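From the methods appendix. Each design record in this collection lists the tokenized structure first, followed by the designed amino acid sequence. Records were kept in a plain field format so they could be parsed without special tools. The example shown here is representative of the layout used throughout.

RECORD:
FOLD TOKENS (325 positions):
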């Protein structure tokens, strides 16, 4: 128990430190942008010295508030790094979140905003998922409930959902768009990603006043919910492998999403009492969806919204039944 306590303390310290850096960073950015405005310099290259490598890539694009999202992301990654037992198979196979400062994916994709494409037929194609020999299928997991694992999993789902939402909004802002506008623009389209939470995803609604997604559905038991959660996370991870992101979008906004999946997967597997991931069934998605990056971001927010809600409900359910017995 003691090392765990120490780690938490360390994390708290790091958090404070980063917060301090952020404050410094923001005021430095504000100052330099003000200065630039006064000089009416055309190329506003605001950079943040503390986050050198990442901002070097993003500096010319991103606004000041992005550093808040990055902070969130960095904190989450720190939590992952600290809480991750090295031997679990759920650990990232590739250090993708970190080493993608280098341009891996450079496929400039024009933004589609043509209303007339709305009637485009969807084109459902298979989304291949890896099958590992010797693993059970995701539907065949048996487990016992541990409420402290459930609480931790809820916390991770909640934090990563917040980070994903924040980064998505910042990404849209960087392209002079906003969430409600884009949701409206693509409301007639569906990416139709097939996974066990697909029918729930359709029930996640966007609330304009909150500028956020809401979901309120029933839960059953940990035994029934966990396989669906785990399998859906695996499918999302594969989805991010086939979508082509432009360089800036990937490096400045989306590369941390994969680490978020890993962290959620890690907690979900622990909750399910598994050391290893399971084999998801073959999935599919609409390859004609006109704005795949936006579609994937929304799908991610929706899935994490559902997962967070399910964990909260399960915690409620199991603490009640524990109280009665
Ligand atoms: C699936 O397998 C391929 C080939 O081994 C690998 O490159 C890819 O990263 C794997 N994807 C996932 C999500 O495990
Ligand atoms: C739940 O998990 C915690 C931490 O891994 C462990 O200490 C505790 O004994 C577990 N509780 C039950 C009821 O298994
Ligand atoms: C969001 O974008 C839409 C269309 O791009 C625009 O009409 C609307 O005013 C924007 N809303 C906000 C709050 O910026």
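DESIGN:
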């Amino acid at each position: 128990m003691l090392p765990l306590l120490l780690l938490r303390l360390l994390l708290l310290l790091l958090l404070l430190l980063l917060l301090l850096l952020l404050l410094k960073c923001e005021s430095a950015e504000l100052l330099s942008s003000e200065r630039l405005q006064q000089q009416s310099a055309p190329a506003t290259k605001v950079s943040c010295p503390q986050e050198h490598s990442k901002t070097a890539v993003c500096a010319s694009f991103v606004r000041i508030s992005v550093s808040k999202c990055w902070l969130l992301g960095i904190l989450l990654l720190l939590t992952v790094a600290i809480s991750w037992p090295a031997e679990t198979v759920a650990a990232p196979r590739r250090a993708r979140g970190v080493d993608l400062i280098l341009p891996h994916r450079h496929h400039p994709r024009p933004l589609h905003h043509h209303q007339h494409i709305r009637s485009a037929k969807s084109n459902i194609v298979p989304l291949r998922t890896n099958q590992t020999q010797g693993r059970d299928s995701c539907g065949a997991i048996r487990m016992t409930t541990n409420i402290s694992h459930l609480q931790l999993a809820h916390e991770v789902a909640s934090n990563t959902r917040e980070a994903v939402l924040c980064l998505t909004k910042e990404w849209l802002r960087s392209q002079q768009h906003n969430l409600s506008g884009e949701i409206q623009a693509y409301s007639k389209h569906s990416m139709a990603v097939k996974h066990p939470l697909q029918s729930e995803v359709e029930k996640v609604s966007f609330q304009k006043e909150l500028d956020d997604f809401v979901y309120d559905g029933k839960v059953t038991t940990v035994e029934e919910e966990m396989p669906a959660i785990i399998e859906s996370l695996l499918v999302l991870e594969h989805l991010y492998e086939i979508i082509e992101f432009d360089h800036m979008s990937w490096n400045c906004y989306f590369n941390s999403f994969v680490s978020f999946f890993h962290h959620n997967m890690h907690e979900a597997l622990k909750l399910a009492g598994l050391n290893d991931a399971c084999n998801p069934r073959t999935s599919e998605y609409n390859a004609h969806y006109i704005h795949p990056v936006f579609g994937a971001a929304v799908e991610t927010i929706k899935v994490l919204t559902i997962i967070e809600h399910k964990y909260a409900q399960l915690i409620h359910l199991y603490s009640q039944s524990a109280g009665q017995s």
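APPENDIX NOTE: The CA atoms of residues 126 and 284 lie 4 Å apart.
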